[in-house]
Amino acid sequence: MRCHSGERPFMCEYSSCAATFSRKHDLRRHMRSLHSEDRPHHCAHCNLSFARSDALKRHLASEAKRNNSHPAIVPDSPGGEMDEVVMSDEEFETKEERDSEDE
């Protein structure tokens, strides 16, 4: 297994980038994240956009924490992207609070 041997045969094709990887998947993710101009994941609250959905999720979570609000994840939209909204503390309710209202 390459991950245990230290072998990193997959190299970034950009001469200014010295990144190497043991798995081809990791190289593809690196290329998509750092060297691609395609950024399909947009923040609904600012002008930032991201190459990967997990980067958008991290951004939303850090902004929610900074602004004292909570990210709410909405199931995948028809376009395949995760729709997320940020709610203030007044709008946020826990599962327990929702369940208690049903009783």
From TrEMBL:
It comes from Rhizophlyctis rosea. Residues 61-103 are annotated as: Disordered. Keywords: Metal-binding, Repeat, Zinc, Zinc-finger. Signal peptide: none annotated. It comes from the Eukaryota. PROSITE patterns: ZINC_FINGER_C2H2_1, ZINC_FINGER_C2H2_2. The keyword Zinc-finger applies. GO terms for cellular component: chromatin; PcG protein complex; transcription regulator complex. The keyword Zinc-finger applies. The lineage of its organism: Eukaryota, Fungi, Fungi incertae sedis, Chytridiomycota, Chytridiomycota incertae sedis. GO terms for molecular function: DNA-binding transcription factor activity, RNA polymerase II-specific; RNA polymerase II cis-regulatory region sequence-specific DNA binding; zinc ion binding. This is C2H2-type domain-containing protein. Pfam families: zf-C2H2. Residues 10-40 form the C2H2-type domain. PANTHER family: TRANSCRIPTIONAL REPRESSOR PROTEIN YY, YY2 TRANSCRIPTION FACTOR. Residues 81-103 have a biased composition (Acidic residues).
